[in-house]
Specification:
Layout: H1 12-27, E1 32-38, H2 53-66, E2 70-74, H3 89-97, H4 99-104, E3 110-113, H5 117-125, E4 130-133, H6 143-150, E5 154-157, H7 169-187, E6 194-197, H8 206-214, E7 226-228, H9 234-239, H10 248-260, E8 263-268, H11 271-287
Parallel strand pairs: 1-2, 1-8, 2-3, 3-4, 4-5, 5-6, 7-8
Length: about 290
Amino acid sequence: MPQRSANSVIDPGVSTAGDAVMARLRGRQRPLVMGVLNVTPDSFSDGGRFLEPADAIAQAERLRAEGADVIDVGAESTRPYGGAVPVTADEERRRLDAALPAVVALGVPVSIDTMKASVAAWAMQAGATIVNDVWGLQREPAMARVVADHGAPVIIMHNRDAADPAIDIIADVAEFFSRSLEIAWRAGIRHDRIVLDPGIGFGKTPEQSLACIAKLHEFSGFGMPLLVGASRKRFIHAVAPSAPMERLGGSLAAHILAVENGAAMIRAHDVAPTVQALAVAAAIRRAR
């Protein structure tokens, strides 16, 4: 694997906290739960609710109390079905500036949900420990180097500019992961600091999102922990018509089956019900 450059800036705190999360994922004693915190005005289900720093911090405290293992903070909506307004890196940092350090201070590992390398670097200097890139290192050339230089774990998510019902989505996701892993390898990102996410709802038809959960085990051959974020996604509406805030039941069903099929981490808006559902499902499995 290529070595990091001599001028790499590695924050030991980022590395240590990130290693701890990755060790828990590999240990697979139970699936970890990542709580969603959108510091945005236009996210698809909770846009505007946590834009003010005080509201964001209060929500982070709630996620911690409910059992979140990681808090995923994002300041630019990526709305999987379109309609999001792109923002500059300066605006993204402005939204994060007051809230992110306070969320980090709560003591729960924080991931930064961004597709911008400069925002990822800034957030890690502010205490974030994981980079969650919805374009899997393939949108900004500098992202892989930033991740490598900080020694941080990275979540590589599959994405497409538009859904294509004609493609084999499982093959498409696998090919995307292979390209991303080549980028990661060339940048010097360690194999044991990578999590793969099939990107439920992103560039996919509802049927393709369902297929990614049903066939999640097909990505296990990469040898990396798998993350699934089906929370409140529109594919649930395709099965049972409902507004985003009315999709808790569908979210829980999708996440329980995702864990059955190999997911090591679940990304969810509703942390307490998710933690409870996963614990009960685990107890039933043990009773078999």
